[in-house]
Structure formats: C-alpha cells, structure tokens
Amino acid sequence: MYLNNPLTEIYRDLWLLAVHKPAGLLVHRSPIDKHETEFALQYARALNGGEHVYPLHRLDRPTSGLLVFARDPQTASTLGKALMAGEVRKTYQAMVRGWTPEQGLIDHPLRDEPEDRRLKGEPQPEREARTRYRRLATTEIPVAIEGHPTSRYSLIELYPETGRKHQLRRHMKHISHPIIGDANHGRGRHNRYFAERFGQGRLMLAATEMVFAHPATGEMLHLRAELEDSFLRVLSVFAG
C-alpha cells in the first residue's frame, strides 16, 4: 500500500498533467485485477486538486514512466484523435536478452489480447503493428544462464508506430530479444537471475518521452521522464 502519492509530477498547465508512474501501479480498474484498490487515475486526480482527469494512453501495470492526463474532456478528445492518427511520438527504453541489431523495424501484425478472460478462447482479428528500435548499449556478463558460459543483453530505445496491447513486449519476443522481467513473453531463467541478483523482479520497460502538438497552443511539447531507481539498478550491468 502506498502511504504517499506514488506519482511524480513532470508537467502541468491548464490542459495537461504529466506524471511518472512507478512499476506495479495500475492506471485504472481492470477486470484482470478486480481486487486492486489503488490506481494512477485516483492519484492523478489528487494531484489535480480532486478534479477529474482523463488518461490519454495507458501503461501496463509493470511498465514505469511517463503517463499523460488531460484536465478537461475537450483536451482529451483532441489528443485522443492525435494518438489515433499517429501524431504522438512515444519513446520507451528496454533491456532485452541478446545483442540486437543496431536498429530495425518490426512489422508484425498482432491479434487483440482481450482483458476479459471469458473472451480469450474466441478468435481475435489480426491488426497491423509496427515498432522501430535503436540499440543504445550492449553488455556481456560472465554468468551461464542458458547453457552458454556468458550472457548477453542490450539496452534499446523503442518507438511504437501503432498502439496494440503489449505491442512492445510481443514484438521483442517475436524477434527473439524478449524484455527482461517479462513474465508472459520473456525467458524465465533470465528473469529469475535478475530478480535474485537485485533483490526484486521488474519489467525492464519504461516510457521515457512523448512529443506532440499542444492541443491548445499548437506548439510542439516534448515531455521526458527519468528512469526510476529500480530500473537504473539493473542497468548497472552495463557499467564498465
């Protein structure tokens, strides 16, 4: 349970509120986690003086980083349309298994993943999904995890061009570079190694930047969120 507001305010004006969401916090109620009572939405409302806010996008529960809310319905509508039109540029950072190419485009359609478990057996349509990525760093540690004497990892930036559910996690699995800490699409041995080494497990995926035209002024707004401490601790394997 959070004793204080876990959100860190990054930006605020008359129309927008941007915050950093920690890993482990749901954005809003979900049929998958009916028992949960704490959500980023309620904490953002507290930052907004108790007034209603409108989440413009979502971050998965285990993903940390930049989360943007509109402070009125018209702003929410305007930016929602911009998101649907691909006019909002998002950047994520992730630590993945193996050494990725220096850059690439993953163009791989994905089937919808319904939140309601009752719908999981029904066939879902495939929808186009594209993710660009760029490698920032590589490391090789002298630890045998899957039969090799050493283990390799990459730190990458991800730029989703579409917004499918779990797109980044599923796309990285598709190219055989799963994100560390991903319980559903990752590699269990690597996840367990880092959870044991650093005393806790976390998904190594963070939303770090968003760029879009301000819905009221039209000027380009560039929002950034710092990586949280639990993410930076795991990145220490890239030092030296």
TrEMBL record:
Residues 108-130 have a biased composition (Basic and acidic residues). Responsible for synthesis of pseudouridine from uracil-65 in transfer RNAs. Pfam families: PseudoU_synth_2 (PF00849). Residues 103-130 are annotated as: Disordered. One of its GO terms (biological process) is enzyme-directed rRNA pseudouridine synthesis. Keywords: Isomerase, tRNA processing. It comes from Methylomonas koyamae. GO terms for molecular function: RNA binding; tRNA pseudouridine(65) synthase activity. Its EC number is 5.4.99.26. This is tRNA pseudouridine synthase C. PANTHER family: MITOCHONDRIAL RNA PSEUDOURIDINE SYNTHASE (PTHR21600), TRNA PSEUDOURIDINE SYNTHASE C (PTHR21600:SF56). InterPro entries: PsdUridine_synth_cat_dom_sf (IPR020103), PsdUridine_synth_RluA-like_CS (IPR006224), PsdUridine_synth_RsuA/RluA (IPR006145), RluA_PseudoU_synthase (IPR050188). It catalyses: uridine(65) in tRNA = pseudouridine(65) in tRNA. The lineage of its organism: Bacteria, Pseudomonadati, Pseudomonadota, Gammaproteobacteria, Methylococcales.
